[in-house]
Amino acid sequence: MRLPISTDRQKYTHNNITMKPLADNFITTARKVIEANYDNEEFGCLELCEALFMSRSNVHRKVKNALNISTSKFIMQVRLEKAREFLSQKDQSIASIAYQVGFADANYFSRAFSTFYGVSPTQYRQTLLKIY
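Structure tokens predicted for Helix-turn-helix domain-containing protein:
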């Protein structure tokens, strides 16, 4: 007996990003590696490639094809997602959160967060505090 093949196998969404099915395994693995190293400010594209046992061009090509962003943007995205989690805890300063997620400069972290989410870390935290 043959199982029916779904017609939506070409693409699907993962974290609001449309991806191809085979890319999901690679992205999931890469995300796990980044999440294990998000606090290391020295962790970048080269370290990700070494952890995945792949060349830089191969990793970049796979990330670009799956997410349509560069490898460094993908690493930053994972770091900023983690920072967003930390911002819900009001006992930590913005600067300490920046250092916890691998940014050496708190000002650069704030600019990157604002660019990615459209609001500053302070505004994001204030919005969260109003909700809770």
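The chain has one domain: 12-131.
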